[in-house]
Each structure stands twice: as structure tokens, then as C-alpha cells.
Amino acid sequence: MRDRILEHKQQIKLFIKELIGFAILFAILGLIVYFFFQKSIYSNIDAGLNRQKERIERNTYANEGPLSVNQRPGGFNPFNNYNNSDFQTNVIVFNKKGIISNRGMLGQRNYKLLSKLTVKNRKLNQVEEITLWSHNYVTTFRGILLKVSDDNTNPEYAGNYVLILQNIDADLLALHSFVEALIVTLIFFWAIAILIAYYLSKSSMKPIINSWHRQKEFSSNAAHELRTPLTVIQNQMEFLLTKPNDKVVDQIQPVSTTLEEVKHLKVLTQRLLTLARSDSNIVQAQRSDVELKPFFEGVLSPFNEIATSQNKSFVDTIDVDGSGHIDADLIKQLVVILIDNAMKYTPKGGTVAVKIVKNHSNLKIVVSDTGNGVPDEDKARIFERFYRTDKSRNSKTGGTGLGLSIAKWIVDQHHGRIHVRDNHPTGSIFTVNINL
Ligand code: ADP
């Protein structure tokens, strides 16, 4: 329950971080798009104003008089709406006294508004934004003021200040609509991105959570497995302390039990270490070319003696030649685990048979025994960590429940397969196939 709350909290934290991350990302994207859009509109207008300024200075329109109202200097702009705009291009001429001298060209309504403009405090030859307020509306221009030289051939301009204005109400309206559309679009995509991120994070967290659960289970199982032999050792030692005058020979039973448990602890810690290392990918198969026949003969040689000492038969067949690309240490560990198990779970008088065959590039290792076999319902699970078919039987055999999971890991490292099936009339057969 606590774990679930913790996972949930972690997921919410991740989700909020994603929410903020995407919001920042989309805000930056929006600002960049807005900035470029605004820049493209203004640069278009400003270029037109500058072109017109040059025309006046060069007096291209010398014979036409000042430019008329509603002549638009800008290039093509899809967002401009000429028809509904009261003001577009206005050329206002200020005489030397600063009074508008082309009033007749501006029209009554325009003049009323534009008459508010003065040349005072205005920068020369620089495009500025000018906002004018009337009692019932606001209108915005971009404008450039120039001082026309006295020798300009157009007497209307010569020696005067000329203010070229471009009405940008329509552009601002378009910009405004664009911003609205941009915000709606970004919010829409932000919501979609968040949903996708939420599902992706949930699914990507699954393996992490699973591995975290496995890790926790592994540690608690490991602690449990370590506690049992340690408790036995402690009990035996405490018992021995109550007999300080006894000789070892008098207390053979507790001494040998302690020794057994120490041996068990040694195997257990070695296996736990192997699995912990395999989990963190510290150990990986280091494959090299190995002469197979002498290698397997060396691995199997001690088992004849062990089998004899346990009143069991050991039969081995090594039908391999040439070399194979394997991790010799890991394959030795694999074969030892399988034979150890076969010996452990086969009663006295039974037989353990090992057959190692190389067929082209396939190496087959078969370990069979005449023991109790593995029940069908356990066949798939015995390769799991700490899984044992019969706990009471296993405690007697000193099993750790880790051997086969290490065997499976070794086979996986060699990209091979391992499986178990029944031996007839009794026992089990473990088969490993590895591609050399
Ligand atoms: P253990 O150290 O307990 O043997 P393993 O991982 O090697 O752990 O094996 C898991 C379980 O599979 C064993 O506890 C045992 O129940 C079963 N098992 C493994 N090998 C054999 C076998 N040859 N015959 C019968 N049961 C086996």
C-alpha cells in the first residue's frame, strides 16, 4: 500500500514536471513564431515606407504632386485589409512653420485626426510607431519623417518636412487574430502532448517499477535466506558454549551442522553476488574461442568421484570437436549447477547422465537424472529466483533456489535456450542449446 502511494506520488511529480516543461517549450515556440510573424509584417511595411521616402527624395513623383491618400507603399501582405481601412498611406507635408500644408489632400476626417501630429520631438529618417486617439477610436501608424532638400523639384515638398504614414490597424488586427489562433493551437497541442507524455511516462515507468519490485523482493528473499543459516549457526554456537569442557569429538553433530551451514552460506553469498552483478550488468559474458573437448573433460572429471561417494552412477558422453566461442567460466558454472542439482535431487542408487554434443555451430548440453523430477506446474517457474518446488525437501538438500536462475542468465548471455522435461520412467532432463 505504501509502495503504491509512493509510486503514485512519483508519477504525479513526473506528470507536473512534464506539464511545466511542455508549457515552457510551447510558450517559447509561441513567442518565436509571434516574433517572426510581427517582424515580417513590420519589415514589409517599413520597406514600403523607405521606398516611398526615397521616391520623394529623388522626386520620382515630381510631376504628379504629393502621393494621394490610400496609396499603399508596402509589398504584398495577405493579412492586410485595404477596403475597410480609413487610413492607409498618408503623406503629410509640414511647412517651415510646422503647419500642415497639404490639408486639401488629406480629407476632412483624416485631417481632423492627423492635425494632432507635429514634427516636434520626432526623429528624422527613422520608422516609428504612432498612435492617435480620437474620441471614439484609436488608430495606429508606422511613419517616417524626412526633411526634403530645398532643391527638390517638387515645390510642395522642397524645404519642408514630409511625414509618410502607413496605417497598420488592419495589420494589428491580423496580428491579434493570429495571436489568438496561435494561443488556441498551442494550448490544444500542449494538451495532446501532455496526454501522450502521460501515457508514455506511465508505460516507461512500468519496467522501472517492475524491476524495483523485483529488486525489493530479491533483497528481502536474500535477507531471509541468509537469516536461516545464520540462526542455525548462532544456535549451535550458543549450545557449544554451554559445554566448554567437551572435546570436538563429543560434539560432532553441532560442529558438522555449523560447517554445513557455513558451506551453504558460502554458496548462497556467491550466487547472490553473481545475480546482483548480473542485474547491474557488471558481469557479462566474455566469449572467446575455447577447445571444447579438453574443456568439458576438465569440467566433468570430478563428478565421477562425487557420484561414487554418494552411491550414484555418473555417465558422461562428450561428443565435441574443435573450438567454440563461449565464456568458459560461465559455461563451467552452468554445467556445474545442472549436475549439482541432478546429484542433489537423485536418491542413492540413481543415475546422472551428461551428454555434450556439438552439431555444426550448435552446442547441446543435456543433463538427465533419475530423481523425483520437476512437477509440470513448476517447470516454468524453477528458473525464477528463490523458487523451489518443495521447501522441506530443499532445506535438506541445502538448496538456495538461485542455481537455475543463474543457469538461465548464463544461457541468455550466450543467446541460447534452456528447458526442462520429464525423464522416463522418473527424473528430469535439462537441455541447453547454445549457438557457438
Ligand atoms: P536449488 O539451489 O534450491 O537447487 P535451483 O534454482 O538450482 O535451486 O533449483 C530450483 C528448484 O528446482 C529446486 O529447488 C528444485 O525444487 C528444482 N530442481 C532443480 N533441479 C532439479 C532436478 N534435477 N530434479 C528435481 N528438481 C529439480
From TrEMBL:
Pfam families: HATPase_c (PF02518), HisKA (PF00512)
Superkingdom field: Bacteria
Cellular component GO terms held in the UniProt record: plasma membrane
Assigned EC number: 2.7.13.3
One GO term of the biological process aspect: cellular response to phosphate starvation
Domain Histidine kinase: 221-436
Reactions performed catalytically: ATP + protein L-histidine = ADP + protein N-phospho-L-histidine
TM regions (residue ranges): 20-37, 181-200
Classification via PANTHER family: PHOSPHATE REGULON SENSOR PROTEIN PHOR
Protein name: histidine kinase
